[in-house]
Amino acid sequence: MSFQITSTVYAANEIVNKAISPNVPQDPGKGLAFYIAALWQTVVTIGGVALIIYLVWGGIEYLTSGGDKTKIDDAQKKISSSVIGVAILIASYAIVYFLQQVLKISILKPVFPSAL
After folding, report:
1. Residue span of the structural domain in which 19 resides
2. Where do runs of H (alpha helix) occur along 1-116?
3. 93: number of Cβ within 10 Å
């Protein structure tokens, strides 16, 4: 049984933030692009989960309204709001995909050339 210990070597006066993942690029400007892409992916994921919950909530309210007009209206508003949310999420993905195709770059996985 063998163990391999890896460590990162830093300069003596270099400030290191241990809270940042080693996968984040450390060059100026590259980290910001990484965080913007990660933020967009997180927002889309959380938004998708939230709209599914909101859609199910509206559906349950609609089924349990018992013919009450105000409860039916509230449930329909929830359902229509979740459908609008789906449209917004799909539109944001379509815009990102379109920009990737037009600009020939990967926006969600930014890769920077090492030398210009």
Report:
1. 1-116
2. 30-63, 69-103
3. 13
CA distances from 85 to 45, 55, 79, 80, 88 (A): 12, 10, 10, 9, 5
- Burial grade of 82 (CB within 10 A; 0-12, 13-18, 19 or more): buried
Number of domains in the chain: 1
pLDDT the model gives residue 26? 59
The b-or-e profile of 18-42 (16+ CB within 10 A means b, else e) is: eeeeeeeeeeeeeeeebeebeeeee
The residue count for the chain = 116
Residues 77-114: tens digit of each pLDDT: 999 999 999 999 999 989 988 988 898 888 777 666 66
The DSSP 8-state label assigned to residue 24 in this structure reads S
